[in-house]
């Protein structure tokens, strides 16, 4: 057994009976060479770098036959001498050392060895002919060599094979085995060389001076055609993925057709990117992938009760809808549409339904959408095209049966780019959405498994055909006691978790919450209430972060220290002639308004201010006409209006106002100013009036009555036409209110003055 220093060389394999030059450029290699020259007569074990231990069975002992200093380092020439078996490798004093055993080789079967040599020589001659007479260095001398061992190692050194392949052959046992592998490798290279020559001959016929830049691409195309392997690895993977996917037959055929187009297009072409993106979308869509739902109505009820306080009628309607869905197994029918002011829980109700059913939840906001392509997608001819919101969100969900919330359908717009609402009809109509056609996908997609839910603040701005497909569920808003409970059950625990406080740090009494509701928020929902509570929590967190030992206690007396001066002082009836209190509905809930009227010497003009809309202005004109036509009943002169100007004003002039429901309020205000009689301070009213003095029904009763309760009003005048509608108003809203139903203006005068 012999021991020698080990020299690791890159990108080269040294064999016995051959030599190679090598540049020694780093300190470790230089030390190894110096050690070999000093202690081992210039002998080293040569191994290629980057080879794992499992592949290091054999190596070559080489002698350093020359050393020359160059600008790049020390140039050494290594002469391979013997093939050795590696017994062990170790590091000694920073120098790698190897224990080796010299292997003496000879063929086991000389006849087979010589037969292999003759076969290799024939291939080498053909290889030289294909290279136009330009052979690899040393190949001509190999033709004359007959000794199996010498021929083997000189051939390995001379032929242009990959270094890894050469090393693999070198590690094999037996001369015949190694010669056989060399024959196989040369045969493969020779076949490639033949094809390359054919390819070059074909390509040269088609090339011109202006086409030289496409040489590589043309060569690749011919290579792929000759080998019967026209698709690259990416395309092959795409093809396998398409074939294994669960997409319907129409989609699979379309995908394979696009894949064929992709093969014929240069990879750097813009069209190639478009096709790849399209195929990615087809593969991303959950064509038949459904999530198993848990249609347990009791669980649905439990989840709704846990996540939402109040809203009893809303939850009851949802339970009824889902019960039908469970029994029929189909969501065909009307689409649920939650309508209500901001912050009343429309979106969170959708999330709760998804949670209760065990389905995925996705949401798309339609507010401000004016382009039909936002729903149906852009055609692929456009740069940067992509599917519409519906297909995008379905793909993101990963299943074809999510709960899909379409938010703010009342804010869809229309312009020259199309009508998104019309496109939405196909999405929501269960009769046709089984084959929804997105302009980008161009294949019908089945949306019938999706549970669609929509939300809106108002219904009047929803296009009638779209509204006709929806089951409207009104969420009017929360009463004061409901807001207090929501704050205690949901908002405060969530805020404590989000801000890192402890429960004892953030204690808020019912009185404090009530004060925040009345003086710092004026809303139907609870968003501003949550913001106010978060503001308090942040101030407490700040004190804790500064290391304060005493955490301030929140009371009704020091609430201004946390939230500042109150924003709302509550409703206060303004006493006086010409003032009447009315109830109005707004997109954010009910509101108490006061109409003021003053009469002055003039010429019979009716002056209207306070940003009244056209409908409200017409109500004022109708009110004055009713009074003029009944002047005797009200004790007025026949021509009173000729010498007076009547000025009607609704405060908060910066806020636009409209609608017919202020008719009775304007009537009472004008009559009060003309007769010099005050209206009652605890009365509010709503209703539309006609020229004959009849009072017509109005909408938004629940929101209006909630506003009356919050303002401390005890008596509310309502149209007789709304008497049947009052049954739909929750008892908690009606409690404590004296509701008076009137048929005409005479009844209004009797109860308002």
Automatic annotation (TrEMBL):
GO terms for cellular component: cytoplasm. GO terms for molecular function: ATP binding; ATP hydrolysis activity; ATP-dependent peptidase activity; sequence-specific DNA binding; serine-type endopeptidase activity. Its main location: cytoplasm. Residues 4-190 form the Lon N-terminal domain. Belongs to the peptidase S16 family. Keywords: ATP-binding, Cytoplasm, Hydrolase, Nucleotide-binding, Protease, Serine protease, Stress response. ATP binds at residues 340-347. Induction: By heat shock. The gene is lon. The active site is at residues 661, 704. The keyword Ribonucleoprotein does not apply. CDD domains: RecA-like_Lon (cd19500). The lineage of its organism: Bacteria, Bacteria division WOR-3. Its EC number is 3.4.21.53. GO terms for biological process: cellular response to heat; protein quality control for misfolded or incompletely synthesized proteins. ATP-dependent serine protease that mediates the selective degradation of mutant and abnormal proteins as well as certain short-lived regulatory proteins. Required for cellular homeostasis and for survival from DNA damage and developmental changes induced by stress. Degrades polypeptides processively to yield small peptide fragments that are 5 to 10 amino acids long. Binds to DNA in a double-stranded, site-specific manner. It catalyses: Hydrolysis of proteins in presence of ATP. This is Lon protease. Homohexamer. Organized in a ring with a central cavity. SUPFAM superfamilies: P-loop containing nucleoside triphosphate hydrolases, PUA domain-like, Ribosomal protein S5 domain 2-like. It is found in: Cytoplasm. Residues 574-753 form the Lon proteolytic domain.
